[in-house]
């Protein structure tokens, strides 16, 4: 996160204090006095930025997700059309998305903390919705090809096949602390295991 101004540097101190305290207790149990002690700031300084710990967690969640999604959205490119005859298994080129996701590693510590056992369960839900919408934004141009190839499959089921599985994989990767490289996650996302439901549909159509 950017720390160019005095205000941002103070907020970063508070974030770092929250990360440290989350090693020992749930972040919702952290007191303002503890944050100020670890961050080495006055309570009055804390209250210039946040009303209380809950306000801190809520604003931090919004900031992380917004920055994460915006960084990735800026790198969106128009995908090529899918050629089912040449390759019915590898349906999506995730490379653009994965290159953008590398930016998420800059916030690795704080994202891992928010998703961890002492983090905020609401953050997981918020991030899941944001990731789903991001994937839909990235790959929405593929949908006409899918609908043309599988006219009998309702849109809501195509959405589950196309967006839900990648969302869960990316969330799991973030929750683990981004242990694997973006390239490794790309290999997983584009594997036959991910696209097997559509592969089965292709095979069914050939019968």
UniProtKB/TrEMBL annotation:
Q: At the top level of its lineage, which domain of life is listed?
A: Bacteria
Keyword set for this entry?
A: DNA-binding
Magnesium as a keyword?
Answer: no
Q: Which sections of the sequence are annotated for DNA binding?
A: 31-50
Q: Name one GO molecular function term.
A: DNA binding
Residue ranges annotated for the HTH tetR-type domain, each copy included: 8-68
Q: Which Pfam families match?
A: TetR_C_8
This chain's protein is named Transcriptional regulator, AcrR family
């Amino acid at each position: 996160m950017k720390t160019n101004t005095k205000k941002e540097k103070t907020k970063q101190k508070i974030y770092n204090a929250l990360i440290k305290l989350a090693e020992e207790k749930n972040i919702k149990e952290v007191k303002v006095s503890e944050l100020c002690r670890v961050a080495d700031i006055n309570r009055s300084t804390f209250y210039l930025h946040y009303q209380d710990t809950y306000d801190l967690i809520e604003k931090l969640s919004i900031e992380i997700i917004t920055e994460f999604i915006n960084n990735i959205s800026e790198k969106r490119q128009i995908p090529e059309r899918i050629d089912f005859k040449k390759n019915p298994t590898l349906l999506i080129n995730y490379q653009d998305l994965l290159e953008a996701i590398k930016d998420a590693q800059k916030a690795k510590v704080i994202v891992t903390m928010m998703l961890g056992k002492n983090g905020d369960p609401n953050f997981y839900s918020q991030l899941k919705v944001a990731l789903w919408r991001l994937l839909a934004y990235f790959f929405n141009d593929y949908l006409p090809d899918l609908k043309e190839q599988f006219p009998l499959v309702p849109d809501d089921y195509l959405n589950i096949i196309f967006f839900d599985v990648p969302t869960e994989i990316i969330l799991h990767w973030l929750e683990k602390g981004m242990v694997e490289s973006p390239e490794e996650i790309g290999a997983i996302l584009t594997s036959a295991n991910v696209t097997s439901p559509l592969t089965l549909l292709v095979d069914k159509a050939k019968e």
